Amino acid sequence: MNEPYAANDGQEQQAVTRLLHAWNDGDASAAERLTELVxxxxxxxxxxxxxxxxxxxxxQPTELAHELFLRLMNADVAWQDRxxxxxxxxxxxRRILVDAARARGAERRGGGEVHVTLSAADEAPGEDAxxxxxxxxxxxxxxxxxxxxxxxxxxxxxxxxxKREEIAEVIGVSVPTVDRELRFARAxxxxxxxx
Length: 195
Description:
Elements: H1 10-24, H2 28-52, H3 61-74, H4 82-108, H5 127-146, H6 148-159, H7 164-171, H8 175-194
Helix pairs in contact: 1-2, 2-3, 2-4, 3-4, 4-5, 5-6, 5-8, 6-8, 7-8
C-alpha cells in the first residue's frame, strides 16, 4: 500500500483507530503495534516531505520517521482516529524539518555570532528552497486558523498525495466539495505566498 490513506483496506483503517484508542487508554504495547503497522507509510510520507525541501536536508526518510516516532511517543495527544493520526504526522514532520533547517542555517551563520558577508555569493545553496518551505509552513498555519478543513484538504492532496476521491472518503464529504475546497485553498495559498 503506497498511500497512507488508501481506502481499499478497511481492516487496516480500523486497526489503526483501535490501536490509537488503546494508546489513549494507556496501553504502551498499542503504541508499539501501531508503529509497526504504519511505519512504511510514515516513512513514505517522510520521503515526500524531504523532497519538498528540495533535497537540501541531510536527513534521510528513515531518520525523519524515527525522529517523528520519538516525538509522538513523548507527546500528549488525544488520538481520535486514523485521519487525525496522519494529520498530526504530517504537521509534526514539517515542524521537524523546519526546526532542522533553522538549526542548520544558524550553524552556518556562526551559531549566534555576528557574521558579515561581503557578497551575495556567500549565501548557502538551498536557502531559497528552505525559505519557500518556511513560507509554506507559515501560510498553512494561517489557513488552518481561518479554515481548518480547507487546510486539511490541501495537506491531504499536496503533502500526502491523496486523490480527490480518497480525500472525500477520508474527511466524509463529496468530491465536488473537495474540488471547491482545493480551489479555494490553492488560490489562497498562492496569494499568501506571493505577498
